[in-house]
Predict the 3D structure of the following.
Amino acid sequence: AERSKECVYRQASDMLRTATVPALKTAQDDFDALGAYRDSQTMAQEARYQRAALLFTSRQYESAVALYDEIDSYRDVSERRQEAVYQWAQQEMDALDYSAAREKFLSLGQYSDAAYKSSMCLYQPGQQALENGEYLAAIELFSQLTPEFENTAARLQQGYYGAANMYFEQADYEKAGEYYLLAGDYLDSYTKATACLYEPACLLMEAGD
């Protein structure tokens, strides 16, 4: 039995030195199967460590993170995992999956510029919503940011103004007036807010005529 284990151990060691993703997976499985034989448990960790590094290099960040989670106290895994999560989040952000990306950036706390990127995961879709005339969606996104972030305060004013115009066109003058006031000093918001007070009266007069 010992001779058989030693044979498996040497084969697994050879696979480890081959250092390809399939070979490292074979080594990992063999060392796992050997249990407490010699330093198999450490070697199994090393196989995972090297395989995660290769997966990271090939931009397979999710798989790399999964492996790092299996060996979280090994070598510099903590730092490597953070970078893998960061790159995974960036990958999702580039694919416009802002919600998933933001969740990962937030999980990284003060790592690199993760906090800034997490805010951009609200700002960028907010800007897109604004450009598409989806004012209420834009307001919801921008409202989660501090006014000082980028030019969020101005973007919010645009959103409120656009929403106010929308409500005005729908003859919902009370709501329109509320949103024009929220738009503050943006363009002619105050003038239009005042108009929202008179428009219903004018309509009533016209109806009376």
